[in-house]
Amino acid sequence: MNNDEELKAKLIADGLSERVADAALELEATMQRWRRRAIQRKPERQAIEVLNLDLDVPQLDVLTAIRAPLVEFGPDAGQETMVATVAQRLAIDPSRASRMISDLIEAGYVSRDVSQSDARRTIVVLSERGEQVVSQVRALKIRLVGEFLSDWDAKDIETFAPLLARFSEWSGK
After folding, report:
1. Those residues with Cβ within 8 angstroms of residue 118's Cβ, 6 or more apart along the chain or in another chain
2. Could you report the average pLDDT of every consecutive run of 10 residues in the chain (173 residues)?
3. Closest CA to 62 of 93, 37, 32
4. pTM recorded for the entire structure
5. Nearest CA-CA partner of 87 in 111, 70, 62, 69
6. Ramachandran region of residue 33, left (φ > 0), alpha (ψ -120 to 50) or beta?
7. H or E segment at 114?
8. Domain presence at residue 150
9. Which domain holds residue 84?
10. What distance in Å separates the CA atoms of residue 144 and residue 98, rounded to the nearest whole number?
């Protein structure tokens, strides 16, 4: 009996059905392959190269977190963005977010402003240059996904997208 068969037997003994145990094993393997590819951040690196940007991938993440696209960040997207907001959205330490934002301010992608709802608070906003970069990078990345999906049949896309969104809710818990 190999390791996967032993693990499957244990999962079944712990109460999972054989169908669910098989699916969980396959899904976990798929996620590991995807994680190894995703960690390389090829679409972001390609965008940096194609657009000839003087940024790195984490800086692109900060710019996107400031812009906070609704489809990515949900209802939080419409709120004013503070350094702490960026840290929370990216799950990074606030001091790291602060340093990265300072670098982006110096480079002209971001500026500090005063909150309209509380003059004691400082918010961060994208400059026109920052807005252009986020728009261009998102368009390129979304086009790459679209090109990949272009030969999928409509039913597969309609099924896959909501199921992936549903599954991603589990991984965030």
Report:
1. none
2. 84 92 90 83 90 94 87 70 91 96 97 89 94 94 90 95 86 58
3. 93
4. 0.78
5. 62
6. alpha
7. strand 110-114
8. no
9. 54-140
10. 31
